[in-house]
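Standup notes, structure subgroup. Blocker cleared on the iron/sulfur cluster input:
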Amino acid sequence: MRNFTYYRPETVAQAVALLETKWGPTELLAGGTDLLDLQKEYVAQPERVVSLTGIRELSGIKVDASAITIGAGTKLAEIAEHPRLRDTVPALTTAAGEIGGPQIRNMGTLGGNLCQRNRCWYFRDEHVSCCLKGGNKCYALDGENQYHAIFTQGHKCVMVHPSTLAPALIALGATAQVQGPQGSRTIELAKFFQAPSSAGQREHVLAPNEVVLSVTIPLVGLQNASYEVRHKQSYDWPLVQAAVAFKLDAGRASDVRVVLGHVAPTPHIAAAAAKALEGKEVTEVTAAAAGKAATEGAKPLSQNGYKVKLVEVAVKRAILTAAHRKKYWEV
Ligand SMILES: Cc1cc2nc3c(=O)[nH]c(=O)nc-3n(C[C@H](O)[C@H](O)[C@H](O)COP(=O)(O)OP(=O)(O)OC[C@H]3O[C@@H](n4cnc5c(N)ncnc54)[C@H](O)[C@@H]3O)c2cc1C
Ligand code: SF4
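Run returned:
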């Protein structure tokens, strides 16, 4: 690991003042479960590391009648185990509870989860210089792409977004509060992520000198669930994830949101799936039709055609779980 200067500010304003206007020389550190790996792998080589661990205002969960606000420094384990959150936003607590293993969940934070770098193995290899590391080629396009995107249109980089909290938060209509040198602003989570195409971009739209403060989820009575298909039950990322949310009135769904994870460089909003379920009674048949519709526009690469079927299954199961029609797992 390259030597760096370590800073531990006590306020967000102090942290922001230490950041720069370009990515790379200075990095924020939260739980370190991603950044330190990248440093040890020589993929990130910051000269200055600004720890957020001394900033108390970033941690904690507040719940009132209309919203939940979760500080960016809140640990994933605390989110997964919070009783009120488990009752109201099971899509989020299920996703948080399935991340990595206990060590990762006890160190990893909400802000770090949303801002983590992608897991493409070419990106993580210090010797490979792909589009996101200053090169001009995506090695996954004609390489080992079994875990890469199936919704690839217009994207120069075909990695999949790694966060499993992101699809759940988008389905729940969450917003992020962020702070930079000009003050604070609010970003809809649905607009927080972008597909990067060069070394000058990240997987999100934050400026290099902005810090995520918190995430707010409106409480508007949505049934919700997240379903992941995984190779292994721990220490791995899902192959495909579906997060869904909808209102349920006399068995019929309205205000339907379906968001897919691990199939595109950003969380993928499956509008056709939402439309297929809107106004319908939630049954095995309508849930399966929404699953089929969720695959609209998929264009698999040479080795990941299997993900199309997984999308169908994950969406169907997430919908039936959210409507309490079926239970596929215990958490
Ligand atoms: C074996 C393993 C399995 C995993 N499985 C999953 C999984 O299934 N699903 C999943 O979603 N994740 C998974 N992860 C990733 C894990 O969730 C992330 O590593 C963790 O959430 C990152 O949080 P952190 O606080 O440790 O971030 P750090 O490593 O400290 O930071 C990560 C990035 O976020 C930036 N950052 C951190 N906080 C902020 C902030 N407040 N504002 C702006 N930028 C910030 C940092 O600068 C850095 O670039 C897994 C990780 C491992 C090692
Ligand atoms: S998928 Fe993205 S990160 Fe992976 S090799 Fe291609 S450009 Fe690089």
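Discussed briefly. The chain has one domain: 1-331.
Next: hand off to the docking folks.
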